Amino acid sequence: MELGEKIQAVKAVFDILDTEIALFQENTKLGCKSGCGECCKKPTIEATILEFLPLAFYLHKENLVEVFLDKIKNKNVLDNTNNEVINDGICVLFAPFLPNGKTGYCTIYEHRGLICRLFGFSATTDKNGQKLLATCRIIKENYTEDYEKAVESIKNGAFIPLIRDFYYKMYAIDLNLGEGRLPINEAIKRALELVDTYFYYANQE
Ligand code: SF4
Ligand code: SF4
Question: pTM of this prediction?
Answer without folding.
Answer: 0.90
